[in-house]
């Protein structure tokens, strides 16, 4: 949903789970192409995908953080040392020099969540 | 000028480099540090023994600096302008800064080199002390000054019977007079330390194994000790300066001018190694100021260093001791309360109008309120100020220094508050650095906030303008049962990692079902979400409840088998339980299935909830016991298990006054008496230790339980987020809590008791309920799209026959 339009055609989509598998305001982790992708479904039903690797602790845990908003922007707090990352841009809102990758994510017609990692 | 070299990487060096970079220094900065790690907060060093990590203490290394660790500089060549490192590396400089600090002075006592003798200065020193303390029973600290007492408290914290040996006539002779020293001694002895004054060390005695076995005093007395820590003062590390022919003081220290320049204009010296106007400063405040001055000069400025304040406050020990300004004056006024252990003295000018300084023991209020008035007109009559702590609306002059560590004035704090619209102390810290070092000025910062008319925000976070206690009332009175309803009606946005767990805890305290039910699941932080504690590599640890620490052999065997079968690391915790480490999320349900089948239940080690009720063996086995401490501990643990609270709750029950269960370091602790039970509240181990206060004596068991019910519920209703009972009791005032809980002054006790009854009746084991619910179990996977696949990033190696995590390396640490 956050991908650039022109990328969509070339992106390779991997289905990972069904939309209803994701709890509102909670994350889950998917293994896509050997990469760990943290998926989030926010309160309003929108999906986001960012890297699962927490750059501050080195552990693969961002999918297990608390989801919320900071000045309106959807974000997740790392469960390790609580740094907050934007779900939209992957930028760490506490230390903007640090960021994690973001991935395109969408819901297919059959209700499957698909992550684009290409 | 392009190459700047700093020798030493301590707090002063770090501050200097920060100031240089902030000032736009264009050249190359190289820092050569002797220790194997970057600069850390030495002032907070002791908290390392209390469990703070090296990472917590370490200052971030500024970007763009070349930092060479484990690099002791052995020589300066002033002609070539180079320094040489022990490993042979040669570093050229245009400007050199010596920030080599000081080294502890070890008096020439025979035996001072024996294994078991230590100094107290670096993380490595503390590691070595901790290791030696593991097999030891007694410790001695030589030196009863500020640092010696801090070290003694640390030894006590490591479980040693600890003695302090002071040459002078009383403790802290440099900060206190005899009267203050005597009152302080009473406090220190009450903590269980043994004090010897007018006593030196004649010899450190060795045992048959060649290690320290005791300390021989000049009078021949031998103190039994396997650990001896020297804290008899420090000496500036000026050896490099001497070797290079720079001017040094007769008693040591690299001589510098007001601009921190040594006798060689290309070389500066800052911090504890520098001698300015005949003074060497052993406090971090003046050292930081020197760093700022030197940085300004190097950048072409004209800053000057002037004589600095030597006010100090003792950290730790839970005893308030402070001294500020001068230690004598034409007149002095003393306030003494021998029963309360308070001794306060103000020194004033002969017309009794100008404050010169003061001493506080037992209650440091005058330090916090009056210190900024040093050298100025007193805001009231001295005796009145001591008795009342001063008028509440005391107006401080703008140029009064409020933070001596970081040299911040009241004017600067006020400017930061108005300029940035600050509403809390955290904001002041971030903008001015005040309060970030020793923390003793924080009460003053709070006063300034309040008096500057700022509505001090009690808002939980950006989503709620209410405090935790207010939210609790809103939820309770309006009968709210979901986060969504609460935030829609009383907040904004969608919450965060601060308010969600608070609301989760409030909902749980008010009995709103399983914490993973429905929407509540999304409020829990990772520990509550997986009902286990996250550890550094993203695995979890599992702690089954072992009420009162009593366990059958069969149950012990089950824990052992589970640990073996899942390859978990096992450790006995400080709370008499067994912690199993290294479980991946997908293993948790299987582990718990086996534990639940064997009769275990969740230990709530993951939650802000009741943790353990520790016990000694009491009258059942112990020849001293007067009551059944095990039986009571089990009954209490079963009663309060699962109780969610603003912070974790710990308790202990001791069977007699010998206090083997350490009940007085707990949130609520119980000690048996001949007639019943004494209840203590507000104790705290951990980061800021506090001895619990006696709350009620000689209670029968039923009455005891009623009082604890009320106490806990009152705490749960009114405490701030993450406020331990220790801070809460201090905030509310012990007398007030007694009135509410014992005398029912608010008329809410019946309600508090009923709420606890509902909790007890509604308890169900969280793990059992989880295992029985397939919907909840589906969350316990590493990957949604590969439920059977374990997280490949989690790897272990073996240490002492058990697993330990191999961490994923972070981006290579800056050079
Ligand atoms: C346990 C403890 C508690 C304290 N509590 C307080 C307090 O509450 N309040 C307060 O104001 N102060 C306190 N202090 C004092 C405070 O820590 C010092 O004033 C401060 O650390 C001085 O900083 P510095 O950088 O000048 O020296 P240091 O911290 O000593 O740093 C100097 C560094 O230089 C290195 N070095 C030395 N020679 C060389 C060389 N030749 N080559 C390379 N590297 C070298 C050393 O290894 C060291 O790492 C405390 C000190 C201790 C030990
Ligand atoms: S506290 Fe008293 S009863 Fe309990 S073990 Fe110690 S000596 Fe025995
Ligand atoms: S006085 Fe030490 S931090 Fe302010």
TrEMBL record, chain A:
Gene3D superfamilies with a match to the protein in the record: Rieske [2Fe-2S] iron-sulphur domain
Entry EC no(s): 1.7.1.15
Keyword Iron on entry: yes
Domain Rieske: 14-114
Recorded GO MF terms: 2 iron, 2 sulfur cluster binding; metal ion binding; monooxygenase activity; nitrite reductase (NADH) activity; oxidoreductase activity, acting on paired donors, with incorporation or reduction of molecular oxygen
UniProt-listed InterPro entries: NirD, Rieske-like_NirD, Rieske_2Fe-2S, Rieske_2Fe-2S_sf
Biological process annotations from GO: nitrate assimilation
Keyword Iron-sulfur applies: yes
UniProt entry keywords in alphabetical sequence: 2Fe-2S, Iron, Iron-sulfur, Metal-binding, Nitrate assimilation, Oxidoreductase
NCBIfam families documented for this protein: nirD_assim_sml
Name recorded for this polypeptide: Nitrite reductase (NADH) small subunit
From TrEMBL, chain B:
Biological process, per Gene Ontology: energy derivation by oxidation of organic compounds; nitrate assimilation
The record's free-text note on cofactor binding: Binds 1 [4Fe-4S] cluster per subunit. Binds 1 siroheme per subunit.
Entries under SUPFAM superfamilies matching the protein: FAD/NAD(P)-binding domain, Nitrite and sulphite reductase 4Fe-4S domain-like, Nitrite/Sulfite reductase N-terminal domain-like
Domain Nitrite/Sulfite reductase ferredoxin-like: 535-596
InterPro entries (alphabetical): BFD-like_2Fe2S-bd_dom, BFD-like_2Fe2S-bd_dom_sf, FAD/NAD-bd_sf, FAD/NAD-binding_dom, NasD-like, NiRdtase/SiRdtase_haem-b_fer, Nit/Sulf_reduc_fer-like_dom_sf, Nitri_red_NirB
Positions annotated to bind [4Fe-4S] cluster: 616, 622, 656, 660
Single GO MF annotation: 4 iron, 4 sulfur cluster binding
Subunit and partners: Homodimer which associates with NirD.
Binding-site positions, siroheme: 660
Residue intervals of the BFD-like [2Fe-2S]-binding domain: 402-449
Function per UniProt: Catalyzes the reduction of sulfite to sulfide, a step in the biosynthesis of sulfur-containing amino acids and cofactors.
Pathway: Nitrogen metabolism; nitrate reduction (assimilation)
Needed co-factor(s): FAD; [4Fe-4S] cluster; [2Fe-2S] cluster; siroheme
Occurrences of domain Nitrite/sulphite reductase 4Fe-4S (ranges): 607-743
EC number assigned by the record: 1.8.7.1
Protein name, per record: assimilatory sulfite reductase (ferredoxin)
Entry annotated with the keyword Flavoprotein: yes
Family statement: Belongs to the nitrite and sulfite reductase 4Fe-4S domain family.
Domain of life per record: Bacteria
Keyword Iron included in the entry's annotation: yes
Keywords, sorted A to Z: 2Fe-2S, 4Fe-4S, FAD, Flavoprotein, Heme, Iron, Iron-sulfur, Metal-binding, Nitrate assimilation, Oxidoreductase, Thioether bond
Organism, scientific name: Streptosporangium becharense
Catalytic activity as recorded in UniProt: hydrogen sulfide + 6 oxidized [2Fe-2S]-[ferredoxin] + 3 H2O = sulfite + 6 reduced [2Fe-2S]-[ferredoxin] + 7 H(+)
């Amino acid at each position: 949903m956050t991908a650039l339009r022109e990328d969509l055609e070339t992106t390779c989509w991997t289905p990972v789970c069904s939309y209803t598998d994701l709890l509102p305001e909670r994350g889950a982790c998917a293994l896509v192409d050997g990469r760990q992708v943290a998926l989030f479904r926010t309160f309003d039903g929108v999906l986001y995908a960012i890297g699962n690797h927490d750059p501050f602790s080195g552990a693969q845990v961002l999918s297990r953080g608390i989801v919320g908003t900071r000045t309106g922007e959807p974000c997740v707090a790392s469960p390790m040392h609580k740094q907050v990352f934007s779900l939209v841009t992957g930028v760490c809102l506490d230390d903007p020099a640090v960021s994690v990758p973001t991935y395109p994510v969408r819901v297919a017609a059959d209700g499957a969540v698909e992550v684009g990692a290409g | 000028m392009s190459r700047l070299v700093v020798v030493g990487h301590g707090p002063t060096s770090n501050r200097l480099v920060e100031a240089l970079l902030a000032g736009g220094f264009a050249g190359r900065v190289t820092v050569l540090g002797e220790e194997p790690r970057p600069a850390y907060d030495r002032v907070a060093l002791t908290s390392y023994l209390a469990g703070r990590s090296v990472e917590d203490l370490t200052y971030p290394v500024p970007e763009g600096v070349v930092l060479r660790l484990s690099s002791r500089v052995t020589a300066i060549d002033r002609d070539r302008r180079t320094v040489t490192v022990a490993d042979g590396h040669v570093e050229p400089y245009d400007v050199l800064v010596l920030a080599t600090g000081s080294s502890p002075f070890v008096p020439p006592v025979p035996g001072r080199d024996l294994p078991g003798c230590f100094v107290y200065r670096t993380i490595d020193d503390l590691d070595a002390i901790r290791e030696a303390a593991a097999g030891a029973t007694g410790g001695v600290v030589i030196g009863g000054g500020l640092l010696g007492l801090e070290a003694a408290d640390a030894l006590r914290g490591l479980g040693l019977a600890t003695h302090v040996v002071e040459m002078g006539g009383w403790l802290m002779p440099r900060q206190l007079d005899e009267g203050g020293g005597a009152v302080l001694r009473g406090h220190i002895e009450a903590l269980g330390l043994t004090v010897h004054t007018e006593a030196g060390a004649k010899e450190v005695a060795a045992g048959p194994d060649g290690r320290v076995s005791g300390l021989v005093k000049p009078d021949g007395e031998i103190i039994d000790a396997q650990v001896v820590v020297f804290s008899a003062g420090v000496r500036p590390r000026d050896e490099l300066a001497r070797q290079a022919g720079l001017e040094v003081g007769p008693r040591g220290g690299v001589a510098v001018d007001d601009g921190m320049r040594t006798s060689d204009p290309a070389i500066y010296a800052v911090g504890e190694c520098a001698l300015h106007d005949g003074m060497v400063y052993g406090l971090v405040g003046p050292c930081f100021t020197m760093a700022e001055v030197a940085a300004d000069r190097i950048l072409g400025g004209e800053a000057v260093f002037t004589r600095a304040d030597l006010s100090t406050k003792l950290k730790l020990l839970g005893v308030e001791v402070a001294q500020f300004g001068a230690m004598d004056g034409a007149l002095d006024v003393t306030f003494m309360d021998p029963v309360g252990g308070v001794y306060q003295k103000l020194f004033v000018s002969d017309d009794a109008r100008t404050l010169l300084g003061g001493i506080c023991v037992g209650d440091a209020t005058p330090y916090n309120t009056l210190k900024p008035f040093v050298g100025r007109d007193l805001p009231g009559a001295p005796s009145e100020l001591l008795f009342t702590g001063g008028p509440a609306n005391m107006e401080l002059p703008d140029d009064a220094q409020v933070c001596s560590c970081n040299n911040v004035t009241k004017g600067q704090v006020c400017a930061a508050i108005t300029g940035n619209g600050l509403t809390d102390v955290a904001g002041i810290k971030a903008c001015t650095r005040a309060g970030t070092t020793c923390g003793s000025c924080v009460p003053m910062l709070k006063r300034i906030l309040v008096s500057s008319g700022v509505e001090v925000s009690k808002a939980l976070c950006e989503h709620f303008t209410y405090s935790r206690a207010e939210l609790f009332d809103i939820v309770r009175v309006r009968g709210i049962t979901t986060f969504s309803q609460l935030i829609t009606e009383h907040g904004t946005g969608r919450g965060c990692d601060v308010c969600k767990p608070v609301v989760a805890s409030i909902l749980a305290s008010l009995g709103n079902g399983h914490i993973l039910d429905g929407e509540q699941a999304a409020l829990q932080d990772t520990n509550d979400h997986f009902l286990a504690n996250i550890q550094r590599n993203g695995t979890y640890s599992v702690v089954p409840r072992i009420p009162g620490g009593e366990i059958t052999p069969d149950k012990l065997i089950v824990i052992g088998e589970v640990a073996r079968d899942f390859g978990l690391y096992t450790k006995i915790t400080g709370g008499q339980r067994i912690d199993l480490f290294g479980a991946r999320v997908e293993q948790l349900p299987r582990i718990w299935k086996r534990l639940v089948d064997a009769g275990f239940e969740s230990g709530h080690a993951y939650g802000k909830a009741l943790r353990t009720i520790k016990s000694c063996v009491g009258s059942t086995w112990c020849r001293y016991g007067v009551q059944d401490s095990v039986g009571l501990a089990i009954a209490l643990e079963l009663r309060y298990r699962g109780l969610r609270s603003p912070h974790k709750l710990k308790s202990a029950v001791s069977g007699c006054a010998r206090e083997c269960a350490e009940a007085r370091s707990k949130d609520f602790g119980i000690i048996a008496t001949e007639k019943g039970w004494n209840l203590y509240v507000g104790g705290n181990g951990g980061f800021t230790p506090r001895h619990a206060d006696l709350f009620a004596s000689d209670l029968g068991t039923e009455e005891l339980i009623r009082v604890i019910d009320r106490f806990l519920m009152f705490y749960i209703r009114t405490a701030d987020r993450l406020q331990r009972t220790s801070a809460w009791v201090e905030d509310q005032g012990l007398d007030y809590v007694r009135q509410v809980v014992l005398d029912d002054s608010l008329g809410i006790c019946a309600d508090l008791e009923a709420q606890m009854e509902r909790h007890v009746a509604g308890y169900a084991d969280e793990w059992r309920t989880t295992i029985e619910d397939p919907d909840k179990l589906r969350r316990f996977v590493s990957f949604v799209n590969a439920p059977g696949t374990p997280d490949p990033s989690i790897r272990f190696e073996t240490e002492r026959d058990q697993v330990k995590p191999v961490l994923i390396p972070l981006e290579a640490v800056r050079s």
